[in-house]
Amino acid sequence: MSKQGRYNRIKIVLAENEKSAKWLAEQLDKDKSTVSRWCTNDMQPTIETFYKIAEILDIEVRELFVASKRT
Q1: Are 39 and 21 a contacting pair, CB within 8 Å?
Q2: Which end of the chain, C or N, has fewer beta carbons within 10 A?
């Protein structure tokens, strides 16, 4: 885990949907190394990209984020 912490769940959601980072990179027309860095939380996509990812995976965008509070 990076110093920045875990902010997104992209890697987990991809695994839950049996998709790869490479597949997502192809869907978004992004470099696979960029998507890999999103999956490891080394960097974050734009808010617009989070919405595109949610649309591609047919999920709610909030599923892509780590909850800030435990309920």
Answers
A1: yes
A2: C
> From CA 53, how far away is CA 4, in angstroms rounded?
21
Residue 24 burial (CB < 10 Å; 0-12/13-18/19+)? buried
State the Cα angle at 2 between 35 and 13, rounded to 5°.
45
Average pLDDT, the chain: 92
pTM for the model stands at 0.87
Alpha helix (H) residue ranges in the chain: 10-16, 21-28, 32-39, 47-57
Distance CA 34, CA 2 (A): 15
